[in-house]
Amino acid sequence: MNTHTRTLSPGHRSVDEITGSRRMRRMRKADWSRRLVQENRLTVDDLIWPIFVIEGTNRREEIAAMPGVYRMSLDLAVKEAEGAARLGIPAIATFPNVEMSLRDQTGSHILDPDNIINKASRAIKAAVPEIGIITDAALDPFTSHGHDGILRDGIIVNDETVAQVAAAAVGQAAAGADIIAPSDMMDGRIGAIRQALDANGFQDVAIMSYATKFASAFYGPYREAVGTAGLLKGDKKTYYIDHANSDEAVREAEQDLAEGADMLMVKPGLPYLDIIRRLKDEFRVPTFAYQVSGEYAMIRAAAANGWIDGERAMLESLLAFKRAGCDGILTYFAPQVAALLRG
């Protein structure tokens, strides 16, 4: 008797009778058929690589909480950008670790045309003009208190911060940034940045809005990377979104698009796949996710302990972003993934 039509037991219907002959495993039976019907694919074109830059020459500092990730001086950052371009990675996002002597209550060093971020943009753009450069105009790496805005009497003041963030964005565009991605979550920042960029002749510089940046526990290793972990007093709940709220995230995204954002970003990533899907369905605009430092560190730590297959978990986590609707992902895994995807 054909096993496909055999009854389960006397008096019970066969599997074909139960399923109406719709056997879902037919297209899973072989590698070729699984590939043929795969709904989502991860490619090198989906990757944005965040890197950390520091002053000096030939300096590479390991970040303990992010194995395999380093702070790099500009000469090394340029070499890494050249390597990323050879792998086909479309863009990098630069983040600074600023010397403590240059940090103050207002983060004023972000306005210096020769700060480390602007120098990195100029150096990378000169050496690798074909790669996109994304910069963050938030103040936290430049403040002595680790907050994303100007601190006055224990309060992050919104409007004064917005003015400084917009001015910083113009400076970053002048240095060669292709996309400004402000992560500060101040009200009105997107509109102010768009207005400032346009007024200064940078109409072609795009804005990737951290439209939905949540008050999350997953940022810890990043704060070590940029040197704010020991500085931060209190938390950022007065300006980041409560992680319990999804309707609020949609309203934030809608506001940023109305103010001139070209792209939306969700941060963190994997714990917020539902937000990614909602934004993509609601607005149909380019949507990105940031697989943040805590997500990266968990995969690397579990893999180092032999608890998971690190390579498979890495690829599965990134494909989850594509399935949720992402057009691209900021991930510290980018070079490793790009090398795998290219063969």
TrEMBL record:
GO molecular function: porphobilinogen synthase activity; zinc ion binding
InterPro entries: ALAD, ALAD_AS, Aldolase_TIM
One GO biological process term: protoporphyrinogen IX biosynthetic process
EC number per UniProt: 4.2.1.24
Keywords: Heme biosynthesis, Lyase, Magnesium, Metal-binding, Porphyrin biosynthesis
Database matches in Gene3D superfamilies: Aldolase class I
Entry binding sites for Mg(2+): 252
Pathway, per record: Porphyrin-containing compound metabolism; protoporphyrin-IX biosynthesis; coproporphyrinogen-III from 5-aminolevulinate: step 1/4
Coiled coil location: none
Cellular component GO terms held in the UniProt record: cytosol
Catalysed reactions, semicolon-separated: 2 5-aminolevulinate = porphobilinogen + 2 H2O + H(+)
Superkingdom to which the source organism belongs: Bacteria
A Pfam family that the UniProt record links to this protein: ALAD
Active-site residues, record numbering mapped to chain: 213 (schiff-base intermediate with substrate), 267 (schiff-base intermediate with substrate)
Family stated for the protein in its record: Belongs to the ALAD family.
PANTHER family the UniProt entry points to: DELTA-AMINOLEVULINIC ACID DEHYDRATASE
Assembly information from the UniProt record: Homooctamer.
NCBIfam families reported for this sequence: PRK09283.1
Name used for this protein in its record: Delta-aminolevulinic acid dehydratase
Phylogenetic placement of the source organism: Bacteria, Pseudomonadati, Pseudomonadota, Alphaproteobacteria, Hyphomicrobiales
